[in-house]
Amino acid sequence: MKNPCLLLLLLRHGRGRGRVLGPELEAPTTTLPLRDVAVRLHLAASSFGPLRLSLAFASPRSLLPSPSPSPSPSPASSPSPCRVCDRNFFVRAKLLRHFAEIHEPEHAKRLRRLASARGARRVRLAAALAPKLARFEKAARDLGAAPRGPADELRRAGVTIRAVEGAPRRAIRDRAVGAMDEGILACVVLVSDDSGLAEVLGEARRRRLRTVVVGDEAEGPLRRSADVGFRWAEVVSGKARAAAPAMVGRWRDREMLKRLEWSFNEDEDEIESEGFEWDSEEEEEEEEGGRENGRPPWWELD
């Protein structure tokens, strides 16, 4: 059975649409929807093992929907009601922002409560929350056709979003080390071209974990520090997913050979040889003593 792996992404706020880690990754996220990019990343990462955790670190601005291309959107003649709280909005962008900032966190909190409940309490809680969950899902479907922010697209792909202020390197390292301390990971997949995150890969290598880097640079500090690296084109085309099983097999064979590796210890070999020669000399003395006393050798029967 394959070992679990951890997928780490960094979401930054770019021009128009958000992008995954760095200006050089803007092209893949504009040619494909960000949700499709995240799904293909999940498929590639899961080829190295069951995906235990998928995290994206984003600035607070990236959590909001992308602004409208028109500088001053005109208000609609008829209001658009929020299907959750029945509040009316004349500008659709404000409705999307209201839904993302208020109702989505509330929905996530309800799901966490439901996931942590057990037994009869879970049954009662599911019955109590069913109307609110159904109402949220219907409202989300009604808003699904509208353009959404990059963080929303990643959430729809199953990625957990973490809001961080300033440089996210420390947050990424702390969360990655925390997951490593749990002792359930065997592979770390880092989506980055930021050389400052090489410390995360170094910590994983010290713990004898496999490391995979996905980025747009053919060569770089992260590529040199990782066991294997892929470019975005290889992830999008599916080549990374197809090549992963063979790499996992080579890693497994290499670990098996290390366990079976025999190392020669000259001191131990000399001790064993000396002990064997001493036993042989003692047996020869016993045989010679037996002949001198006129007794037959011990191996001859009476």
Automatic annotation (TrEMBL):
UniProt keyword Zinc, yes or no: yes
Bias kind Pro residues: ranges: 66-78
Region (Disordered): 62-81, 266-302
Domain C2H2-type intervals: 80-108
InterPro entries: Znf_C2H2_type (IPR013087)
Keyword Metal-binding tagged: yes
Biased composition (Acidic residues): 266-289
Lineage: superkingdom: Eukaryota
GO molecular function, one term: zinc ion binding
Keywords, in A-Z order: Metal-binding, Zinc, Zinc-finger
Protein name: C2H2-type domain-containing protein
